[in-house]
Amino acid sequence: ATTDSMLLLALKSSTCEQAMILDVSSSPDYYGPGGPYHVFTGRDSSRAFSLTTLKPEHIHADMAGATPQEWAVLDDWAAKLSAKYPMVGTLLAEPQGPKACAEEGALDEWRIIGSEA
Question: pTM to 2 decimals?
Answer without folding.
Answer: 0.76
